[in-house]
């Protein structure tokens, strides 16, 4: 009998799409699966990135045996730089994933001394009490894997991000044989990708996009600009294949697209027949019907190649010409709808014909739909089930799906980040909650999320601010002249002057009552905030942030400058 | 021969979904079609509403003959309050629309003296050189119409917002007979709804939702909470119908839902069999399987009934109980994705089963898909075509569709707000651009959009601010003590103190060079902004807004208080 329970501790990726990180703990051994980042939404203005909170790991450094990465997307590798600059532990991944990790660590200035181990699917890695075996899965990036983890309590299967694609364009189809081989043995736990649990049926094969791309490119009389995710190598391969078939040449633009295409060519994940890729100077000599431009920008990223084209940015290597066909071969990630929509409209305005997912099958998802999730459940037949990788509604629906496949309700755990699930061979229980907050990156600052800072930012954004300078005569303790008020972002220029003069009167009236000595600066602060706050609220229905600056001044109180009232 | 050209001037709703307004001008006669508002996106923090710019109309007041409203949605009636408080002109609409306009004008404090005329579809209204005839169309609100406008240059058909539904639940199917009667005559111009031009085929009938609702409600063992748009009377009717069939009673919650249901019952647009609607006290005595709650909140509006339930707001009349089924019988309007998603997740977390459009057909759109747009084009056979009501991509795609239906390219005008299109019997041309900006409502302020205010707000939101108070000794012109710096929203509390002390040093070093007299306040401002700006940029990669406050003070420079450095 095993001496310890198996502890399953999600540190990120549950109740959100992003910053995936899962810890498995047995006795004194901890392994970590994935270390991803997340991009913040509009509700966190000024925040650049989010990382999982790794304090659980920092407190148990001596027990950490390694971090295993399922694939090279940023929501699975993007927090490694943060983690490896604070913890020393070996990293295990497939080869393509390792290349992307190395690039990411270098860009973020983490020493290359990190031990990045390459693992071949099928081989085994022993990490303390755990033995890990990777199995190939199909996803929207090469060399993706799921994990078969042998623990003293039984086998844990982690799906990674997966779909089932019998005709993938690059790499291996999802490898059922390793999973099927487990069929005889008891699988203790399945952790499975919930992203597309809302979709019925099967996610279509990547090869379906080929026909659409071929039709669009063969019908286009002008240039074709294809934008997709830089790491979606299979899509890029299809563009190269169609280019060869339709006698077009391909020009690659956008920094990340160039970098990844070059890396994938070197490592053999992408195959470009000689002469199909061309340089900028060659592009200029080609007739339009022989040109394909491959570019970044499918998410409307402000500095991407496509957005520069859409905005007629003179720095862009390619400018839109009426008659161009633009193919957005991607899905819009939730949160990017507005910028993608704006980019699309700008391209139309310039006379391009834009083809996107609503108009033609120019993209297929990288995650499995309900039937695929059911197939995995029925193949693995786990005792316990924990849905991972999804918003709470996805996890909840995936939990229901598992129950519909015969897993008892008590064996399905819809967890949240920070839950500590303990599993024995026969029963499981959430025994604790650990700290699993958010680490935010804001400029060069990396730290815990300060709600006050975010609250202030939102308040400033919605209401603007007023800085009120009150001078108190150092000798007699009375007001020395009129208050000065500077505002930012809360009234339009036309009404500003009049409003500011009235607001000065309000402060004067509140402070100068009887022209007696003013009280303590703290008291003056409060009077200014209260009186002005009420005035703006009643007058313009706004709640600007009011910052009183109280100074004790000599009589030589300077006149306001132009930009102040 | 007509003496003038017909002028078509879109003032809102082209290149955007919202604030629809179209002017038609012939000689000295102007009519306006619709007067809608728009809700701003995240890029306009603090802005409450947007209205079309009506300066074209204000400059030609004496020529205005009336405003004709196609239906009662806010993007078609919401700017009437703004317009009617600045212009005197009669309003023409169907009866249900009139009721909604009256409520809206009252809420916004516009005098009831506005002449709100009710028009019956089929009858004619003469407005100067124009004669207007309304025809019934199906849309997601009762009493929607399109317009047949007789002008000296020929007939103009305005589709309104429409779909083709042969089995509508409330009101009339789209009336082809009036349009077909035009078939013999020449139609000069078709203005047609472009919202769903991206969708192939036909938009399903409203009656399709009935089966889904019936299945969900009959299968639910607990309470069912249905949320939809308050003005989607046909959906509300279906909920009442299913309630009767399944022996449930309906409790209505949410201010706007209550108001509109009550109005629709009074005016006969909604039929509730006796006893089906119940009060809060009756609700409490009913077993769960006999309860339906009808509520607002499908767009995640913070103060709506559903969001209060999702957040366990103690003020909510209804609290979620595990076992509740929540049906979100609506589509998410672009821009609301994040809040709707958060609301859904919160409902799941509380143990509700939530059913939304991705999981079942609980909603159908109110706008026609491509085949319906083609049907209208082929029925009306216009000489000229102007796509309306859509983002630029929708207008562009609708223009292509019209060409594919045989309208010559030169007769299709993809316009933008402010374009002045002149039409004769044989040719048309955009002859000018008029001012068609945006009027924004921010608290009680209504005015033109000041880019500086918005830029400042975004800057503040992303970077926060630093107020730097510099005291200059009134006698010797030198610095009187250390600068004081107050920051808001740009560093987290942990690092703040150290950073502020260093930033004081930076200002001191920049100003106190040689301890000579300081220059003009304007010069001091610049030195402070430059030196601190550089410091924050290099140190924390941030660009806070820096507000220097320069005061000439006596020697009694007060010590900083706690909240300042």
Folded structure, characterized:
- The structure is a homodimer of 565-residue chains.
- Chain A has 565 residues and is α/β, with parallel strands linked by helices.
- An eight-stranded mixed sheet of chain A has the order 7-6-5-3-2-1-19-20.
- The first copy, chain A, starts with 5 loop residues before the first strand and ends in a 12-residue tail after the last strand.
- The C terminus of chain A is likely disordered.
- The radius of gyration of chain A is 29 Å and the shape is globular.
- The first copy, chain A, contains 16 helices and 25 strands.
- The first copy, chain A, has three domains: 279 residues, Metallo-beta-lactamase, Chain A (4-Layer Sandwich); 149 residues, Rossmann fold, CATH 3.40.50.10710; 102 residues, Ubiquitin-like (UB roll) (Roll).
- Helix content of chain A is 30%, strand content 24%.
- Chains A and B meet through helix 11, helix 13, strand 22, helix 14 and strand 23 of A and helix 11, helix 13, strand 22, helix 14 and strand 23 of B.
Task: Name the descriptors.
6-stranded mixed β-sheet; alpha/beta; 565 residues; Metallo-beta-lactamase, Chain A; Ubiquitin-like (UB roll); 8-stranded mixed β-sheet; homodimer; globular; Rossmann fold; disordered C terminus; 3 domains
Number of helices of chain A: 16
Content of β-strand of chain A? 15-25%
Please name the CATH architecture of the largest domain in chain A.
4-Layer Sandwich
User: What's the shape of chain A?
Assistant: globular
CATH class of the largest domain in chain A: Alpha Beta
- Which structural class matches the secondary elements of chain A? alpha/beta
């Amino acid at each position: 009998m095993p001496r310890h329970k198996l502890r399953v501790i999600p540190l990120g990726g549950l109740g959100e799409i992003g910053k995936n990180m899962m810890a498995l703990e047995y006795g004194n051994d901890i392994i970590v699966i994935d270390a991803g980042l997340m991009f913040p939404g509009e509700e966190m203005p000024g925040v650049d990135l989010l990382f999982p909170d790794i304090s659980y790991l920092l407190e148990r450094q001596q027990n950490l045996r390694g971090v295993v990465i399922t694939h090279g997307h940023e929501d699975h590798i993007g927090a490694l730089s943060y983690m490896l600059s604070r913890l020393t532990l070996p990293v295990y991944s497939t080869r393509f994933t390792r290349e992307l990790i190395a690039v990411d660590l270098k860009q973020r200035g983490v020493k290359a001394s990190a031990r990045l181990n390459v693992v071949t699917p099928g081989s085994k890695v022993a990490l303390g009490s755990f033995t890990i075996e990777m199995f190939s899965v199909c996803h929207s990036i090469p060399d993706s894997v799921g994990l078969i983890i042998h623990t003293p309590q039984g086998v844990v299967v982690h799906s990674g991000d997966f779909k089932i694609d019998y005709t993938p364009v690059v790499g291996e189809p999802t490898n059922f044989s390793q999973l099927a081989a487990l069929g005889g043995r008891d699988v203790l736990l399945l952790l499975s990708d919930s992203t597309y649990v809302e979709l019925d049926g099967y996610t279509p094969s990547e090869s379906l996009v080929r026909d659409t791309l071929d039709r669009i490119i063969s019908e286009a009389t002008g240039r074709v600009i294809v934008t997709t995710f830089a790491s979606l190598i299979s899509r890029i391969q299809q563009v190269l294949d169609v280019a060869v078939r339709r006698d077009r040449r391909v020009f690659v633009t956008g920094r990340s697209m160039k970098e990844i295409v070059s890396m994938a060519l070197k490592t053999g994940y992408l195959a470009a027949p000689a002469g199909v890729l061309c340089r900028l100077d060659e592009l200029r000599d080609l007739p339009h019907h022989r040109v394909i431009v491959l570019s970044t920008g499918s998410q409307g990223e402000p500095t991407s190649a496509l957005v520069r084209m859409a905005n007629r940015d003179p720095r862009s290597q390619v400018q839109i010409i009426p008659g161009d066909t633009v193919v957005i071969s991607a899905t819009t990630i939730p949160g990017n709808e507005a910028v993608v929509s704006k980019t699309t409209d700008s391209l139309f305005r310039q006379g391009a014909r834009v083809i996107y997912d609503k108009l033609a099958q120019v993209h297929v998802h990288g995650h499995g739909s309900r039937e695929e999730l059911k197939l995995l459940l029925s193949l693995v037949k786990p005792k316990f089930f924990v849905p991972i990788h999804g918003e709470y509604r996805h996890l909840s629906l995936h939990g229901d799906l598992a129950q519909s496949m015969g897993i008892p309700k008590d064996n399905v755990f819809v967890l949240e980040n920070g839950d500590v699930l303990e599993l024995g061979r026969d029963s499981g229980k959430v025994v604790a909650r650990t700290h699993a907050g958010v680490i935010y990156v804001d400029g060069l600052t990396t730290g815990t999320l300060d709600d006050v800072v975010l609250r202030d930012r939102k308040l400033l954004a919605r209401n603007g601010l007023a800085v009120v300078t009150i001078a108190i005569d150092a000798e007699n303790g009375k007001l020395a002249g009129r208050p000065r008020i500077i505002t930012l972002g809360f009234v339009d220029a036309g009404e500003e002057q009049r409003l500011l003069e009235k607001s000065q009167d309000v402060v004067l009236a509140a402070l100068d009552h009887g022209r007696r000595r003013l009280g303590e600066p703290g008291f003056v602060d409060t009077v200014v905030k209260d009186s002005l706050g009420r005035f703006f609220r009643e007058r313009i229905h706004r709640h600007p942030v009011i910052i009183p600056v109280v100074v004790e001044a000599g009589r030589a109180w300077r006149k306001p400058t132009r930009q102040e009232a």
